[in-house]
């Protein structure tokens, strides 16, 4: 932890007015949207306002704004102290705020408001979340062997692609691996043996894009910025554009997840609603999350260089040898491997935004001041700023593989926010933390284990893409001392 100051605010902090403004109706939101996407860019948009107001809590408008969101006004919380208010469902309502100030049509999800859009106070939330957690618990014995099988195919494909073209786009193969794993986990069926064939991941990609288009930019030349803004951020894209693909996904899950849907009925959930929720859990939550997390993990580990690679390989190989295989016990002993995964989640969390609507008047605190929030105010958190808070983390912009090793490092885990909660918290049926949080951490560790059981080192080039990072593998050096 940074020694320059404490991360715990004083209860005696002065209450100050929240700085910032929303500008004129419509025009203020439109200007902020152009600044956010095209003039300043996402991170600089927040940096500039923190500097302007000398505060990590301020008022602003968040995209998409007019005409898609009736009220784009938010109170932004961008430090490690104020951010966790968004996890407290006794203080904030989570109804229809997964994507922020707008709510995609339920036509994307078979006419149902799925669990991710429900507030825990809504009766259906507890039954659906309990159903998810029960299914994951029943599948836990499949996690390691099934994902290792999928990873074996991934690395074979990467090697073939590098041999053929001199490099391999990790994202393409990682997306396919994630989809194959998730479908086989929930449906016990290879997706290529269904009507989807090998197109399942691409179907999910189109489905995700149409829902998340209001929050992204394609990075087109400046001359096309206004056209893109009109097409992506002004009116919602119609679900009919992906209706055929979604129906194929739904039918595949419905036809091959019989035991899972049987479980849903035990929780009083009809099979149709359960299946639409299962598709969302697999496609939006799980596939969408790994689609951004796995390339980010490979990017940051690849950039860290051969010294860290050697240390990871030594730890992984020695533990696997001592344990006689890749087991939960073995994974738990790999302290550096665990730390590297947490560091990737800290520096580039797979979901960068959190939203919640204040249930009552309240006071929130940053490091330096307290602020009054009014009932009904939308609170917005930009996670990468909270998890790179310089008052908590030394060298917050640097990827430090050993950051969470040892007693002091473990104390910092409560500031790793990435799953709609703290890393030290657990998902329950009553909170909004991702039900697959522990599975995501496990799969990320397995990704590193399989990588360094096979290779001594690798090189990577990375760039920004629509939903995170793109990692291109330039070389893979086969392991020499297994």
From TrEMBL:
<dbReference type="InterPro" id="IPR001128">
    <property type="entry name" value="Cyt_P450"/>
</dbReference>
<comment type="similarity">
    <text>Belongs to the cytochrome P450 family.</text>
</comment>
<keyword id="KW-0479">Metal-binding</keyword>
<comment type="pathway">
    <text>Secondary metabolite biosynthesis; terpenoid biosynthesis.</text>
</comment>
<keyword id="KW-0408">Iron</keyword>
<protein>
    <recommendedName>
        <fullName>Allene oxide synthase</fullName>
    </recommendedName>
</protein>
<dbReference type="InterPro" id="IPR036396">
    <property type="entry name" value="Cyt_P450_sf"/>
</dbReference>
<dbReference type="Pfam" id="PF00067">
    <property type="entry name" value="p450"/>
</dbReference>
<dbReference type="InterPro" id="IPR002403">
    <property type="entry name" value="Cyt_P450_E_grp-IV"/>
</dbReference>
